[in-house]
């Protein structure tokens, strides 16, 4: 006898394969590699751009500082030039001041050396040499004047009498006209060393 089961038999659904086909797997892996490469290149480009901007900012800052330093250097050079000019002026003033002491001492020493009844008519200077002309009532006055000049440390010895003449004046009587030659010697200036001469 033939039996037929008319009841619905429970059928298990066929399991779908969860496996991705090999072609799709290669595509996905290649896409992931490509995407990571694009991201890496984008990040690298962004970092290069940031570094370039920082370098540009540093260059601009350095150029600004260079301009400031150039202006400061120009001012320093101007100050140095001005300082050198002022130093030259100070040196010139000191030289002039030292040079003025000579004539002052000459006149002072000559006035100290004048004895009684003697007066001067002319003083001529050529370098360190002085020619002094004057008049006195006696020859003793001329010799006293010369002796007084020789005692001064501002004149080199000897003091030479160039000329002396007797002149008669109806108002003042007999007078002696004279002229002497003296050489100015500043005692503050050290004398040159004299060479030693060996004696046999």
Question: Could you describe the 3D structure shown?
Answer:
The protein has 200 residues and is α+β, with helices and mostly antiparallel strands. The protein has two domains: 92 residues; 70 residues, Gyrase A, domain 2 (2-Layer Sandwich), CATH 3.30.1360. The chain is built from two helices and four strands. The chain has a four-stranded antiparallel β-sheet, with helices on one face. Strand 1 and strand 2 form a beta hairpin. The longest helix has 92 residues.
Task: Please give the structural blueprint.
Blueprint: H1 22-113, E1 118-126, E2 129-136, H2 139-151, E3 155-169, E4 173-184
Helix pairs in contact: 1-2
**Strand arrangement, largest sheet?**
1-2-4-3
Q: How many strands appear in the DSSP assignment?
A: 4
- State the separation between the terminal residues, measured CA to CA: 176 Å
Which structural class do you get from the secondary structure elements?
A: alpha+beta
SS field, number of helical segments: 2
Largest sheet: 4 strands, antiparallel
Radius of gyration: 57 Å
What count of domains describes the coordinates?
2
**Helix amount, in percent?**
40-55%
Low-confidence stretches: 191-200
> So what's the overall shape?
rod-shaped
Approximately what portion of the residues adopt beta-strand conformation?
A: 15-25%
Give the integer mean of the pLDDT values. Answer: 81
- SSE pattern, N- to C-terminal: HEEHEE
